[in-house]
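Shipment paperwork, digital attachment
Item: protein structure file
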Amino acid sequence: MNPFLARDYDVPKRPIFLLEGRNVVQSTEASAFVSNSVTDSVMYSTNGNLGLRHQSEVERVGFKTEVLLNGVYHEEAMDISKYKGIPCTNEVGASICTVDFDCLLDGESGTLASIPNRKLNLDDGAYRSHCTDVMSADGGLIFNTSYVRTVGRTDLSMWGAQVCYSDFRLVAIRSPASAGSDGNFGFSNSVMGSYAPQSLSMDNVSDEAVPGRSLHGVKCSQNDLNYRIEFVVVISIDQESWDIFHKQMDQIYQCSLTSEKKVTTFTEVECVVNYGDTHRLLQAEVESTQWVRDAESGTASSFSRDRYHMGTGGSTGARDGASSFSNTELKEHGNGDRDGRNNSNFLRPGSWNYHDFHSPNKAQKSYVIKKRFMMPLTPETVPDSVVLTFRACHRRESTEQRPPALPTIEEMIADQKTALEVFWKTFDADLKLQDELIPSRSSLPFVYNAFRMFMVSHGLEGGLSRSGLSAAGDGLQFNLSEYIYYGLYYLLTQPEACLRLLKSVYHMLPQSREYARGLSMSHGAVFPLKTISGMHSTHAANVSNARFHVNAEIGFLIALYDEAAESIAAEDRLLLLELMMESARIWPQCGEWQDDHTVFRLDNIAGTDEYNSNASGNFYVNISARRHIASAFLFLKRQQGHLTEDQMNSVFASLEMTGHEMAELQAVGDGILVPQRHERLGVYMVHDNFDTLIDWGNERATHPLHLNYHPIHIYRRKLIDVPEVLLGMLLYPDEFDQRDFLRNFEYYLPLCTFDSPESLFVMVHALCRARLNFSQPMPLLRSLANIDLDNIVYSAEGGLHFSAMAATLPGLIFGCGGVWVSHKGLQVRPILPARIERYSFTIQWRGAVLRVLVDRVNITYDLISGASLRFIHGTPGERIHLHTGFGRCPETTHLVVPRTRHSQVVQFDGVVLLSDCFFDNLLEYSYRSWYKTLETLFDTYRVLHNRPIPSLTPEEFIEEVVYQLEDGEISFSGINRILQRRGVYLELGTPEDAEIVETRYGLANAKVAEMTEMVLMSPPPVNPGIFSLLKDLAENGVALAVVSYSRSLKQLLASNPQLARLFVASIDGEEAHDWKIKGRPHLDLYMRAAEKIHVDTNRCLVISHHLDRGFDAKDMSRFRMFIDVEDPFVSSRFPRRPYPSLTPEESKERRRDNPVVCRLELSRIPASIDELEDMVDGRKA
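Attachment content:
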């Protein structure tokens, strides 16, 4: 990657979420420093029609949910003055209401004692939150809460939530009371036993109502405590977006003020108090209040929206402040609290925080409907539990009748569980890395993303927005350029869901036809790049809006779905045929014939990459259009065996598509020429003028570019966002060979900005196809998979990235799995890149489910569903047929294929290289860095203690640092001896110690900083002989790994990209510390490196330095050979000692001869692999 241009997608070491069994839970380490908006996004609920964004409870025991509904929102422009690039828009009307649950104890919300335990269950789809030891304001009442929320599946308009308050405990407190008072503070026993909503409480009893009341605190026993508890459900509707007609909670009619969309909401709320074997249903008190502006003061009335939310202002400044609800009499209460202080718990809290759900600085005015259930609580009336249940149904029309009965929470959860159980039986996606410190961390994103994609698949006919209804804002747009990734995902996992996705596109045909007419096209349909209602959402500043590639991608998905599906109903075939032909017939109107009607040119049409404007000869547009037309005719031919002639004629009649137009369309398809490789570079250009653009230079880019630079500034630079050339090669791989992938990947990687998550997927695929087993896809794939789970781009408030979710599994399947899907069928060519211990995935193809498991030894295929499946395995290709048995053929549902060795060298398969060996005099850099670091420390001690401290000499550095012997993990024992010899004693410390901290790790960090600066100012020269040898090894299929005990390795590799690309794995000091790798002379560092590149140690060479002291020959004999490269910094000061060798008994035991170490002088570096093999064989001294 280009460090100046590429966006940073580093995955943090500490995950925010963990996978525990089948539950996604928030890490306790991350809870303290991670924004609640991250949890709110990851833990939201959806079924593709409804989106329920929960606001995490932090200080209070209230639960709040914003309800988003698909198909009721539209777009409006925002203030664009602060944007340098394309202006931003805001989607309004998606949030139909917010629902709050609260428990008020004498008018105050319960306070949380600890961070709630939140989890999302992947087996039943329910979100659950458990709060323990919730406390009243005075500390006299403690209880627990359990919250659960789910969405409907059978009826996508339904959802429900439930809160169970349990384990009530009364605790003795110190409270104000009068001498001689009875402890009930003015309540008679008869009142305290009442359940009427009008029961008295401390809030409506003044100090004067209790004769002789004193402010002196006395101890209040448990028997004296009593509380008024209110269980409250509040529905709030934004009056700036909605007009409300029917103003009861059980049935609400609302109409959009801007789009005239209508929504009917039906709700059921109940509160049940449980006492042992009996229960009691509390009666509700309902209030409905709209926002009214005070004409005189210009302020909102007491029933403004701000009175019903978790505020952020006030003294606390916390996000989840105490919730306040007004009483029935519409007045402020200013009664004393239990301590006798004037505490008006109904005073207006701070202003509404937009970041909860909406756009910045937007003051909300809402219509509020509140339903509350009141009960007193005394020692005599402590219940076992109180269950508050809310169920809702949101329909898009105002004429909808109330459903006969809303399903219970348990029924909705059971319905989801049944569907998910079927899904998980045929789905598998697992990945385990060798350097995985936290169990299941690599598996979590694959499982979580699959769960999310399954949940939204229920409502796919309504389209799939960018954020999947996880948040309001521009994420609610339907970005049809992302549908190619959605479609690829569903083709592999749920082909029936891919059909629903295509139907959502079909529903846009009327608007797309209208858009085509607006572009002066007489027929056909142009599908929008971005839309809400089916019409194209464009921006005035976007001069590059002629993008027709979406049509071709729709055609690609239709053709591929026809190949992948087991069966397609006739009505669906007719639908797909109309969609295919209507999308394909635009191409003759997009270009012109040239060269005597032999070449059809498509110019001034931009592809999917928004960073490249309209230009002639766009590669992706041309190849997509040509293949689109070819697929349309192939698809038409295939339908002739499934549809009658009358059915097909009816489609063409409705399209008014004639035989002449069909012939012209076919001729255009034959006339489109895909741009050829660049003569000098040997790669395909994005467009004809791409090579003439200006390089980005050494300015560090500000991401995303389209919000920080003018479009013209971007269009003039040689850069890409989504690598169109590589995307075209991904979709149509049969037109390219492995060399094409290699050349184009290496050319476009340093030009990619990675502003779009999809670019990570395209690069993962291209990398794996280019370098096969020597690829390193995990950094890119991990970033893609964890964008939302680790909030990598800090975009949690905008919701989830469904394009990244959809692309994660195809990244594994098409990349590492080597899967191709085309009209030629299914092909699987798995690889096992470095760092991956094993991975597995499933593919649905023609009614069967294939499971592929790849590990270091074998590739295993299992037919886990379906009767028969044929596919091509490996290269050049072996045809495999898995089946459940037929005729005289026995069942074959399981097949194991051994992984083959790819090295072309007889003696070894891999080489592990110590980083010091391929740089000239790197130890001199290390010595100077330590010298400066220690001198800074010694100068301080010289002044403080007024005594001479000798400086570090090269000889002492060699003896104590270069040849240091560690008993276990790296502890800088040599540096420690140098310090103690001078009377300086420092603790080891931790790797997180700052450079100024006086610990050994603090010194090491200072040394790393010093060496980094030296490397940047004067990079150490790479030894040309070593570089040539490494390059030759890599080209002959030998896996290379580079290792170092220093944390400077990353900087060294970054400054030498041509060298870095040769290695498929690396280990630096940071990883050595994380994995507790033992220091020199232990061989753990080399053993782990061999493991990472999947090479047995007995077929692995180690190229290192300074092997003449401390090493054990028997341990070293586990490797094929150690090669000790001469180091002038050491050899010029110390003579070499004899290398360790095996005794006769050890040679017999190990079944090998000496030597185990071979000396390599810099003047005699092998010029070829042949010479290196001769050295290993002993034919060359």
